[in-house]
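Annex B. Sample input.
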Amino acid sequence: MVYYRLTSLRSLERFLHQQPDIAVACGLPDDIPCYQTFRRRFQALEAPAWAAARQLIRKLARRRWLRWSLLVIDGSLLAAKGRPPRPGKRPRPPTDPDASWGYSPSDGWVWGYRLHGIITADRITAPVAWRTTTATGHETRQVAPLLRQTPRWRGQRRGWLIGDGTYDSQRLVALAAHKRRRLVAAMYIRRWGKPAMSSARKARWRFVHSPAGKRLLRRRTAIERDWSQLKHVFLLDPLPVTRLARVQVYVSLVMVAYLAAVAYNGSMRRSLRAIKSLIA
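Annex B, continued. Sample output.
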């Protein structure tokens, strides 16, 4: 479904009926399940998808295609499938009742979900941890779960974790340090009415505005390019499924497909970034 960019589970069922060779390759030689069976099985794919993703991440790290020295954290809004709610005299319910309104400076107000993730930004951009919440889910509340999900490589040294101004918090700095990461977040201070800074915040301010800190913060654009590629190549925006549980599964399947494409490119000595050419 992800590889052929199908927009629903019904279209997946029709596609397998029309492509019996692909159905056999997927392990369905005799009878193709109906739409309801696909729908029930789809909701139980979160754990297998994560297991496959961890195997691919270990393979990519073992072959040095993934490097852990520099990670970037950020969130991005995903538009829900169908129409948003309409209030007023003639209210209209939304197509996806689990979605919610969320705001970002780049996208404005979006009815949908929010993807939180950590990617590698050294040599190749690839997701190593992600979570999907409703659009109202705040990005700072997902830092601890994302760091717990990020695999640790044997012999891993201390590395960097880069984020925007949303992650500028002493609590998050301490949390990242516990995971052997130094958090570097963009810092913005108002000219008027600014509160007095603590000594720790002053130290972060000096580093962020130093040449080394500015070079690190410029690497934040890696995750923006990665989110853009995932959205346009893998049909993540708008989403092809409804309900939070199914959206979480679909996002995980997209990440598995992305990691599998990186592993294929590496094994075939292609450019690790050549993802779009592999998608039908």
